[in-house]
Amino acid sequence: MKIGDAILFKGKGMLGKIISFATRSPYTHCGCYIGNGEIVESDWGGVQVNNIEGRNDFDVYTHNKANYRQRRDAVRWMLDQKGKGYDYRGLIGIGLSLLKGCKRNKLDQKDKYWCSELLADGYIKAHIEAGFNHNTWITAPKDFANPEYFTKSE
User: Fold this and answer.
1) 94 CB contacts (<8 Å, ≥6 apart)?
2) What is the structure's pLDDT at 130?
């Protein structure tokens, strides 16, 4: 694994099945590898650093063109968000936007994140082109498996 790699998790349980169904993907969560066996991720407790050791339900995706400086800058930006909360309101906004068929999320909180939003914002801040809409609230973990921009590690 390289610094800045996207770590895509395959969820289990009922919530994982719901996310998989909604996103049409086996990937239900993501984090970013920061080195030394650790990832930065946003989960129910907000943005935090966790050890990846012992977790085996994931795939690793490396950006095809990002250089070391860009990957490092993305990781630094994500680490600067450490301690910020999870965007529960934004998730409700996603559901409402899907129901209404609109392309806006009025409940998205820009100072809080869910997993894929954190990574997409970090990549954008580091000028890593990955095809993400600047409305990163619509980004899902599966978007980091896009073969146009990412390669799955074996």
Assistant:
1) 105, 137, 138
2) 92
What's the number of domains the chain is made of?
1
CA-to-CA separations, 149 to 20, 87, 94, in angstroms, rounded = 22, 26, 25
Q: List, as own/partner pairs, every contact residues 132-136 make where C-beta atoms lie below 8 angstroms and the sequence separation is at least 24, other chains included.
A: 135/103, 135/104, 135/105
> What is the C-alpha to C-alpha distance for residues 153 and 48, in angstroms, rounded to an integer?
24
* Interval 116-126: pLDDT, tens: 999 999 999 99
Asked, for residue 154, whether it belongs to a domain, the answer is no
- Look up the domain containing 56 and give its range: 6-149
**CATH number of residue 14's parent domain:** 3.90.1720.10
Mean pLDDT, residues 23-47 taken together: 93
